[in-house]
Each structure stands twice: as structure tokens, then as C-alpha cells.
Design brief:
By secondary structure, the protein is of the alpha/beta class. It is built from seven helices and five strands; from the N terminus they run E-H-E-H-H-E-H-E-H-H-E-H. The chain has a five-stranded parallel beta sheet with strand order 2-3-1-4-5. The longest helix is centred in the middle third of the chain and has 18 residues. It starts with a strand and ends with a helix.
Length: 178
Amino acid sequence: MIVMINGAFGSGKTSAATKLQTLIPNSMIFDPEEIGYMLRNVIVDDVRMDVEKTDDFQDMELWKVLTVKVAREIRQKYNKHLIVPMTIYKSEQFSYIHRGLKELDADLFHFTLMTSMETLHERLLKRGDEPDGWTFKQAVKCLEAFHGARFEEYIQTDGQTTDDVVNFITSKVLSNRK
């Protein structure tokens, strides 16, 4: 089983994933952001293609490719259920990764944590992000991009605790496994 937890930066993905991991036996968190950090360090600016010279490692084609390949290798080697918290709002990257993970395991569940801009900003400030920082600058385009059927199933998190979100995900995942 693979559980993707999507949503804007600050929507609660990592908190939900961490709690969910304790409730799903034989599971682990697989965070594609770590692959992005590695690529950013290995593929320096003067090596990157022009389209990859942005402040977002998801613009590096290798990121989506390695995300699926590393997930496959982890599944084969360790035979664990994967919980994947990651903001993936760009359609091409999302489609590629979703398709790749679905080929890896038919029990793929995808949830997008949705929240109001006000709540999102409150959460970003609470965790220490700077109001003029990168995550704040991504907020509007993330929230706008997540509208559309490809990002279903939605979980509205305004006024919800992490436990509420995790209980919803757990009930869906455990009742709909193939």
C-alpha cells in the first residue's frame, strides 16, 4: 500500500504522515523532498539545464524519475507500505509520480489537504517560516493548482486536528484496500 499526502506547504502533510505511520503496521515515511535536496546538492547550477535553474527542485526532471525509482527500490528491498508526504502541484510531475506509484502498488491512495489561505499562513508562521519566505510565496499558486479532479480526494483541514485528518485517512485506507 502507498498513501500519498499532498497539499500546500504548511497544510499538515508531515504531521499527518508521522502520526499515520504509527497506525499502519509495516509502514515507513518516504519523503521525495529528500531526493530533491540531494539533487540540488549534486546537480549544481552550472550543470543544470536552463529550465531547471529555478528555486524549485521539482523543475529538475530527474526528481520525478528518481522519486518513482527510489520508491520502487525501497518497496522491493524492505517490503514496507509507503507514506508519501509531498507538495506536488505541478500537473506533469504529479501525473508521472502518481502513475509510477500506481504501477508499483495497486493500493495507492491519494489525499490532498486543503485549507484556507488564512489558516495556511497561520500554520506557516507557527512553524517559524518567514512571511516573505519561499513557502509563503508558493501558497497562492499551490492552493489554486490543487483544484481539479486529479488531486482528489480532498480533506478540508480548517478547524481539524491532525488526529481528525489521520482518522479520516485511516478509515478510507483500511476500508478500501484491494
